[in-house]
Recover the amino acids of this structure.
């Protein structure tokens, strides 16, 4: 147990990770040594940043808290603090159920932790972070919360209404990160397309992305978590005209049958969904689309599921994830619908859908053999350097494996490679 050392554990999404990085910077400015995601406690104090999105994530957060409580009881840890989405939603209940935790904080008041440690929050470094990612890329959070009312989603309950960050502040953060060596930005929010509506009374995502693209040193910008309804179509132009805006869009569609889309309160139709995908591919040639789909939502019939399978086969997403519906208390779905589809049926549908996508992914990967592509190097593993193309987001998408063959490549540098082979997910390449 090292004195003056604090362990930060981050669970859940990249938005949580940004919060952890900001806290780490504040702690370091106050004289602490900070570790991130250490498998066991290193210091006297630990802070767990929790996720409260779906059942599995909540369970993981609880298990992590209990694991660190055990370390505290065994004398391997003096103080334990918990923050993030789970404690934002269930703070009072957690205080009763897990009294071993010294204090619970919500998602937005974690800076109070500093005062409880006898330290001061330093507003002059509010946009600064201690990056936990490789130095060449960073996540850039442009807003908090969500104004959408999807039936299944508890995020608005946890995070509240959509709050955009001022454009000037975001640009200042980008400039700071570039000065520290960051070349690639993953733009994140609960819902990107709503950016600016609260602050500027209109959708400002295209303008923001264009301004980020103009910052010297920004090599790649990648967009995550968009909503299909009222998509700001000027973004197509921004993607076409700015070479450093990756031809990549992460847009969560959830389903395609009109029956399911209505029940999910998605405010979009099957026809509009197909039309939007067509428009993406027409307006931004070569774009890679990532989506997330849901199976087993209350009332999903075999016909609905067959429509979803047909959709996956027709749309041929470059990247696709899927999950089974999990009832979240307080949501419209939990109150209005019975979670009647058996878990084994949900799992069977999930497996079938992902099997279809696996075949598509394999075909799309194989089609890249023989192409020259630009990659950025993330790390080295054994005899391979691991890189990504503009079409690959860190940690969730395929990677490009490049045999070293006596050549030294540098992390965070770009190289042109020839794709020589492919499997279901990853590509293999050599330097050209």
């Amino acid at each position: 147990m090292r004195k003056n050392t604090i362990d930060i554990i981050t669970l859940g999404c990249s938005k949580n990770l940004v919060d952890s990085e900001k806290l780490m910077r504040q702690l370091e400015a106050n004289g602490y040594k900070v570790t991130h995601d250490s498998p066991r406690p290193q210091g006297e104090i630990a802070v767990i940043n929790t996720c409260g999105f779906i059942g599995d994530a909540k369970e993981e957060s609880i298990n992590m808290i209990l694991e660190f409580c055990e370390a505290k009881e065994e004398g391997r840890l003096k103080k334990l603090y918990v923050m993030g989405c789970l404690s934002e939603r269930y703070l009072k209940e957690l205080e009763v159920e897990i009294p071993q935790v010294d204090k619970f904080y919500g998602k937005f008041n974690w800076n109070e932790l500093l005062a409880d440690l006898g330290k001061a929050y330093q507003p002059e470094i509010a946009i600064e972070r201690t990056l936990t990612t490789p130095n060449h890329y960073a996540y850039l959070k442009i807003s908090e919360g969500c104004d959408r009312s999807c039936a299944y989603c508890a995020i608005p309950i946890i995070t509240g209404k959509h709050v955009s960050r001022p454009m000037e502040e975001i640009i200042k953060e980008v400039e700071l990160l570039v000065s520290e060596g960051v070349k690639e930005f993953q733009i994140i929010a609960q819902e990107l397309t709503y950016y600016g509506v609260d602050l500027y009374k209109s959708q400002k995502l295209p303008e923001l992305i264009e301004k980020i693209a103009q910052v010297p040193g920004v090599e790649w910008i990648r967009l995550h978590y968009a909503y299909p309804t009222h998509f700001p179509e000027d973004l197509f132009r921004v993607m076409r005209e700015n070479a450093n805006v990756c031809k990549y869009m992460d847009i969560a569609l959830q389903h395609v049958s009109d029956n399911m889309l209505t029940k999910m309160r998605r405010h979009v139709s099957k026809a509009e969904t197909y039309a939007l995908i067509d428009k993406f591919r027409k307006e931004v040639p070569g774009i890679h689309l990532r989506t997330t789909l849901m199976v087993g939502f209350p009332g999903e019939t075999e016909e609905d599921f067959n429509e979803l399978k047909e959709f996956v086969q027709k749309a041929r997403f470059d990247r696709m994830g899927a999950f089974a519906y999990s009832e979240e208390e307080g949501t419209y779905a939990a109150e209005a619908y019975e979670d009647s589809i058996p878990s084994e049926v949900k799992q069977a549908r999930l497996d079938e859908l992902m099997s279809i996508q696996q075949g598509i992914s394999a075909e799309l990967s194989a089609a890249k053999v023989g192409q020259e592509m630009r990659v950025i190097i993330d790390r080295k593993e054994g005899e391979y350097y691991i890189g990504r193309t503009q079409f690959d987001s860190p940690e969730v998408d395929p990677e490009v494996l490049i045999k070293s063959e006596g050549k030294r490549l540098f992390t965070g540098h770009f190289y042109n490679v020839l794709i020589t082979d492919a499997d279901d997910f990853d590509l293999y390449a050599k330097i050209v």
About this structure: The domain at 372-431 is CATH 2.40.50.140 (OB fold (Dihydrolipoamide Acetyltransferase, E2P)). The first helix runs from residue 14 to 29. DSSP finds 14 helices and 18 strands in the chain.
